[in-house]
Design brief:
- This protein is 19% helix and 31% strand.
- The chain is built from 12 helices and 39 strands.
- Helix 6 runs parallel beside helix 7 and helix 9 packs parallel to helix 10.
- It is globular.
- The N terminus is likely disordered.
- The protein binds (2R,3S,4R,5S)-2-(hydroxymethyl)piperidine-3,4,5-triol.
């Protein structure tokens, strides 16, 4: 018998005899089967294969005398050989388990076997957690499998969704304790994908504060390669994303698998290559610092992982992630709307401002066409430096004696929207909040309390703390005209412990904290549905698919230098849509690296993101102000397509002196090409840029020129990008001059 939802393009087919599940959307297939011992095995993940076919022969169980066998008399069946969906520890599979549960007697041995399954159109939300969603049930089909450990009566509900419009599978799992004894979940991987070979390049996005999401690659080798965060946030150090690029594939061709985590806390991503070159790709909550006490009659929901398959190389994978995250993870009023051009005062003033200074910066911003003025850190409590005030969300009496309401009205009176910075999850010891509730910070009794930037983390694992922060934010947001908030989070978590919980629950605090963060975001979203939230974590320390659900854009990095941003924005684009990448033009010399780059280059980089300025425009010359006015007009003309167009990476800053990328409208009518040369060269080579995503048959005009080209020429013959440095160095070159940090923005429009 075949159970299949044939109406939807995304189907789940069940073949009863081989107990095989086939998720198929016409482009990709995900195949699993239940074996004779009830174990759920992976058969295949990749490009779509025919339905109604038995693929059981893809199970490889070779006789190997050195292996451990499940049953006496059957020396072929060994868990060590099988590509599983929910591998466990201790019964013959010596690789990392997807689930590990400690029972009352101390044992960690479980045996989850298939019991039943459900197939339904659509996709359910995950309680308390962000997740991808559908707007109509025909956009996706979900398969829910129940696996049970008979001895403990613990169930695992494994859920897989295949999307009609995205070559992606969403997987999550829930553990339900139907038994009579408590157990402890020690490890739970949202994704476990056992691939039949190890012919992959592993790509990760790594870095540090101000150097986020740089691309790093290495080839898979036998053993485990992994990245993780144990900082309480998804982190700047590693991003919860990994790609496996099939050998021989590249940016535009060949197979790539990408996995990202819809979660903002500690994570682990790993690829373990075993003795026989089977690769186990896992992504889930970092087991370090995690355990969950599962009392009888309770359940635990693990976050969602999204795994994408592309046959159009890395770029195809990125485009799938972009559309999926932009349209079916991000949500709310701002999801599809053009984002306002903002000016943020942080790099202009830091803590050195008063209302008049802000108004003078804002007036100039208004004059050039900025739409939103954002007041950053320093407006509240006794916040005269970063040693005091966090937690006290009322206007600083000296700087803003008339309060936030009055300032917001003044800004709105000028014809701009007003935005405000918060760091809601934190407190300084020098604050009224801390003095009133010293026990609200995360700390371990009788241990040192480490600080980060002089601040401490409020325990959002406690409901009353979330309630208090919500009320404080609500009070400001309800009593002033605030259209935007920047939600910052500036430190890693340490000495993590919750004094309101017993010893059984201390392993839950990191996760409960993130649930508290999501709850706070959700309540703010709900009460202020038109408020635009930009998330931030000392720059890009919580740039992940989880927060994108509530905040459709994120400040990508505290490094605003154009040249560093080539790398940061290029790396970020591996997963995240341009609509999410907060990018601003800042002053020179740059505050982080002291580099002086031209204003047009700073613009040409920030243009490909959620755009803004991070400087006092009063300090610019008249001619620069004229330039800024033109920049703003350009953003207004093209931001819709930057947010929603198809993005192509053309040249990598990690591979050479030139960086280039482009965006094309879905109708292939307009293309924006950014081209950046880091250092100038002498007697340099000729340069050709091969554009992507155009219509071969259409004729495009290069804006501000009378030059026209066919799409075919631009993609196959290439666009001549040589400049004055090509062939010679000559400042008086009739073709113009070139210089360090040179850049171009080419706009092609269909004739
Ligand atoms: C870190 C952020 O990334 C900056 O943009 C700024 O908001 C500062 N915090 C303010 O303290």
């Amino acid at each position: 018998m075949i159970t299949t939802d044939t109406q939807a393009a995304a189907t789940v087919e069940y073949l009863k005899a081989p107990r095989q599940f086939h998720l198929n959307n016409g482009t990709i297939s995900y195949l699993m089967k239940v074996d004779k011992h009830g174990k759920l095995l992976n058969l295949y993940f990749g490009s779509a294969v025919p339905r109604e076919t038995n693929y059981a022969h893809l199970v490889e169980m070779l006789h190997r005398s050195t292996s451990v066998n499940t049953e006496l008399g059957d020396d072929r069946y060994s868990l060590e050989h099988l590509r599983q969906e929910l591998p466990e520890h201790g019964s013959g599979d010596f690789r990392d388990p997807a689930i590990q549960i400690k029972q009352a007697n101390g044992s960690e041995i479980t045996n989850f076997t298939y019991q039943t399954h459900k197939i339904y159109a659509g996709k359910k939300p995950l309680p308390g957690l962000p997740a991808s969603y559908v707007e109509n049930d025909d956009e996706a089909t979900t398969l829910e499998l129940t696996l049970t450990d008979d001895l403990t009566k613990i169930d695992v509900l494994l859920s897989y969704t295949i999307f009609r419009d995205f070559d992606a599978i969403a997987r999550s799992l829930e553990v339900v304790n139907r038994g009579e004894e408590a157990a402890v979940i020690e490890r739970i991987m949202s994704l476990n994908l056992d691939l039949p070979d190890a012919d992959y390049e592993w790509l990760q996005l790594s870095g540090a504060w101000s150097r986020e999401r740089n691309v790093k690659t290495r080839h898979l080798q036998q053993g485990t390669q992994s990245i993780s965060s144990a900082r309480g946030a998804s982190s700047q150090t590693q991003n919860p994303f990994v790609a496996l690029i099939k050998d021989g594939s590249n940016e535009f061709t060949g197979e790539t698998i990408g996995a990202t985590f819809v979660y903002s806390g500690n994570f682990l991503a790993s690829a373990e290559v075993d003795t026989w070159d089977v690769t186990r790709l896992q992504l889930g909550i970092n087991p370090q610092g995690f355990s969950w006490h599962l009392a009888p009659e309770t359940h635990f929901q693990a976050p969602e992982a999204l795994v994408v398959f592309s046959e159009q190389g890395l770029n195809g994978m990125s485009q799938t992630f972009h559309k999926l995250l932009r349209t079916r993870v991000a949500q709310g009023y701002w999801r599809d709307r053009e984002r306002p051009i903002l000016l943020n005062n942080w790099e202009a003033t830091q803590y050195d401002f008063d209302e008049n200074k802000l108004v003078s910066i804002a007036s100039k911003a208004k004059e050039v066409g900025v739409e939103l003025f954002v007041l950053d850190d320093g407006w509240f409590g006794e916040r005269n430096s970063d040693t005091a005030g966090l937690g006290d969300w009322y206007a600083n009496k000296e700087r803003l004696p008339k309060g936030i309401k009055s300032l917001s009205e003044r800004i709105e009176g000028m014809g701009m929207k007003f935005g405000l910075w918060f760091e809601p999850e934190m407190v300084n010891k020098d604050s009224e909040l801390y003095r009133a509730h010293p026990d609200w910070i995360i700390h371990t009794p009788d241990r040192n309390q480490s600080n980060g930037r002089n601040q401490f983390v409020l325990n959002l694992a406690r409901e009353e703390v979330v309630d208090h922060i919500f009320d404080a934010m609500d009070n400001i947001l309800s009593n002033a005209s605030i259209s935007y908030i920047k939600w910052d989070m500036n430190r890693s978590m340490t000495e993590v412990f919750d004094i309101s919980r017993s010893e059984h629950h201390q392993g839950e605090v990191f996760h409960r904290y993130i649930l508290g963060v999501y709850e706070l975001y959700r309540r703010i979203n709900q009460k202020f549905p038109e408020l635009l939230i930009e998330s931030c974590s000392a720059g890009g320390g919580r740039f992940d698919a989880g927060l994108l659900q509530y905040a459709p854009q994120a400040w990508a990095s505290d490094c605003s230098d154009a040249v560093e941003r080539y790398k940061i924005q290029y790396g970020t684009s591996m997963v995240y849509p341009l609509s999410a990448i907060g990018a601003h033009v800042s002053a020179v010399p740059n505050h982080q690296v002291n580099r002086v780059t031209p204003l047009d280059t700073r613009f040409n980089v920030a243009f490909f993101g959620a755009f803004g300025y991070e400087l006092d425009l009063n300090e610019l010359s008249e001619s620069e102000i004229e330039q800024v006015k033109k920049q703003i007009q350009l953003v207004k003309d093209y931001r819709g397509m930057i947010q929603q167009g198809d993005f192509y990476r053309l040249k990598s800053p990690f591979e050479g002196n030139i960086t280039s990328w482009m965006v094309v409208t879905p109708e292939k009518e307009t293309a924006l090409v950014g081209y950046y040369k880091t250092l100038n060269d002498v007697n340099g080579p000729y340069r050709r840029l091969y554009l992507k995503g155009l219509d071969e048959e259409k004729i495009y005009r290069l804006k501000s020129s009378d030059k026209t080209y066919s799409g075919k020429e631009l993609m196959k013959v290439g666009f001549v990008a040589s400049d004055a440095s090509s062939g010679e160095y000559c400042p008086s070159n009739p073709y113009g001059t070139s210089h360090d940090f040179d850049s171009k923005l080419w706009i092609f429009e269909v004739v």
